[in-house]
Amino acid sequence: MFQNWMKKKVEHTLDQPEQHETMTSVDMPDMDYYFIMGDVPKQDERLTKSLKARLKPLADKHKRNAILTLNYDANVKEHIHSLEETLLHQVDILNVFEHYILPESGSKRRYSEFIIGTSFQSINEAVMPVEESTVQVTRYELPSSPICYIDQYNEEQQLVKREEYNWQGVLCRVQSFVPHTGALYLEELINDDGNIYMEIIYPGDTKKNPVRHINWYKKTGIQTFTKKTDIKQRWLSSIQTQNDRLKLMITEDRDQDRHLFKIDQPETTYYAAFVHDAH
């Protein structure tokens, strides 16, 4: 059905070169539409404007549509809320960590090795050491200047650990580094309750530092992956097979192509890539 629709639209356009048909006049197939990207786009980005133009006719015709984002973002809730307001709530906006990984996560243990030595409901309430040469604080460029990172250095001023906080001052991610090289060797993701739910382990090599393996501490037990894309592909696969409706999954940037086009494609799902710029 979808192939026939595409064929007819192309033939119709070729037969009538003077007629510029807009999406609002197109009889869109009855299917679910998914737009796949890395980050939640900001309000002033070209991608946001492009999405808004494409989502409106789908919403007007009551077609199910959703934006799927695949990157980790400490402030994804706020970014999703902002985009929802920009797009006038015409689309569901989902993130693989927020809407797939976290709901199924259990806990390895509670994180307790805070750089400043204690735990706070919000790090923004803490008094930062002023003359501590081994601790450096980076803040978000927001009116209230909330803390973004707390970096810990050794006596030789080499970075050994970084704690990342969201705008509310809640610890979200901890990264550990090889002191003499600065290479990342461990990444721990932490939920709102302060528990580690995922750890990503790297070789700690300065030149090539691919993921060695990932431990996801699910409610049902530990699940191990060897690549970050494995988890993202599992989420996309689960969306493909959640019902029998026809689906069109569109990648919005080249970095996401590998997540979509290398998974098993069911007969009810079609893949596409939207080219925003010439390559």
From TrEMBL:
Residues annotated as domain Glycosyl transferase: 34-217
Top-level taxon: Bacteria
Record-listed E.C. numbers: 2.4.1.52
Gene3D superfamilies: Glycogen Phosphorylase B
Transmembrane segments: none
Pfam families: Glyco_trans_A_1
Protein name: Poly(Glycerol-phosphate) alpha-glucosyltransferase
Organism from which the protein derives: Bacillus pumilus (Bacillus mesentericus)
